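Weekly structure sync, notes
Attendees: PL (lead), two postdocs, one rotation student
Agenda item 3: pending single-chain targets
PL asked that the sequence for the first pending target be pasted directly into the notes so everyone works from the same version. It is reproduced below exactly as submitted, 342 residues in total.
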Amino acid sequence: MRAIVQHRYGSAPEDVLGLAEAGRPTAGAGEVLVRVHAAGVDRGTRYLMTGEPYLVRLAGCGLLRPRALNPARDLAGTVAAVGADVTGFAVGDEVFGVGAGAFAEYACARPGKLAPKPANLSFSQAAAVPNSGLTALQAVRDHGRVRAGQRVLIIGASGGVGTFAVQLAKAFGAEVTGMCRTAKVEAVRALGADRVIDYTASDIGSGDGDGDGGGDGDGGDGDGGQRYDVILDIGGSRPLARLCGALAPQGTLVLVGAEFDGRWTAGTGRLLRARLLAPLVGQKIANFVTSENAADLLVLRDLVESGMITPAVDRSYPLAESAAAVRYLLDGHATGKVVVTI
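Predicted structure, written out during the meeting:
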């Protein structure tokens, strides 16, 4: 089969991800073999590609070299075979979810990380959903506990997780403010955000901006010193004190990932500081590791089929250009998701 193969860790996708012929995997006991039609690219791809922070390697991804064929995990396709003890899936079923080495014509996945593909999505759209959709759902529903009438701020609203989070918070009845860079303001507004802050022209708690066009005239709104019931900080780096200062007295701050700031622990230092700060303030500070599970994939499928959320796919690349797809994401160009078609 054709697959992207990675033999060593490295920071440049052009140097470590190459197209090659590889052996077709077989479905072992408790596994499903998927004929992959599309694979999603997310921030986690970077960690698996570089092996940094080194905690990734210690977690079982390979100490000196990658254990997986390639760093892609999100996939959508058709079931090609099922292993022993697998129930609920049959050959020919259209599925989406999380597997291993998804930049390939075939990949294996656990049935607990797969679900039937949303009927109204193409394979490319469905491949954009799993990890980013799961992270957004769990951030909004489980940790932010967003409910109708709340004021919610989503920092990083134009990214893969952010585009889902904006739509989910709106679906739960919240008043949503998104924060992103100038060029992506209109895209975030089109997702349904009630207000959009261009962070190059204004910032939270600053009182800057008057709502009639921040940053190069693209329509960014000012913050006006707003206090929020829930703030989702997606991979951000703002001081925790500033974020808490923009929260309502009983508000909730959800730290969704962290910017890479070290080879050993990445942004976990900031998360540890958050845990130390939480008992000292009246607000709740939460962070979490995304749970990859079929139950939440089914929730996302239902939300997609009902029209309440739609994956925002920025660009698609053919399998041979997987390195370019990863580069496009890492360079910060993407609004929403990037996918690879096979």
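Discussion points:
- The chain has eleven helices and 15 strands.
- Residues 208-217 have pLDDT under 50 and may be disordered.
Action: rotation student to compare against the earlier draft before next sync.
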